[in-house]
Amino acid sequence: MNTVKLIGNVGSEVNFLTFDNGKKASFGLATNETYIDKKNEEVKNTTWHNIVAWGKVAEVCADLVTKGKLVCIEGKLNYRNYVNKDNKTVYLTEIIAYKVTEVEAKQQL
């Protein structure tokens, strides 16, 4: 089963596109983790994720998602690639969102 659930802060405003057959929203999401390393020191790590939503979920993103907001993303992991203008293959990892909800700060704990 290909299922992903992330809670993090939106890193940019939503890029919203409308096509003849639907809508697409995309944005960056930062997740944070803190752990203690072998030296007993606290390490903070931020990971950036590419989020893509289609159709009604994209419409939710357009209304709900703003830079800095804490959100929960439920979806699936997707890998794709394309050849850029320099004729080099670019590899992308994305989360295809099925559900996007706002998280209240007190729920984060």
Tell me which CATH architecture applies here: Beta Barrel
Q: How many structural domains does the protein architecture include?
A: 1
Counted by DSSP, the helix tally is 1
The helix/strand class is: mainly beta
CATH superfamily: Nucleic acid-binding proteins
Question: What is the assembly state of the chains in this entry?
Answer: single chain
User: Could you tell me the strand content as a percent range?
Assistant: over 45%
Mean pLDDT: 93
The largest pleated sheet is described as: 5 strands, mixed, barrel
What is the terminal separation in angstroms?
27 Å
Low-confidence stretches: none
Q: How does this structure look, described?
A:
This protein starts with a strand and ends in a 7-residue tail after the last strand. It has a single domain, classed as OB fold (Dihydrolipoamide Acetyltransferase, E2P), CATH 2.40.50.140. The protein is mainly beta. It contains one helix and six strands, in the order ββββαββ. The radius of gyration is 16 Å and the shape is globular. The protein has one helix at residues 55-64, and strands at 4-10, 15-19, 22-36, 42-54, 70-83, 89-102. The chain has a five-stranded mixed beta barrel. The mean pLDDT is 93.
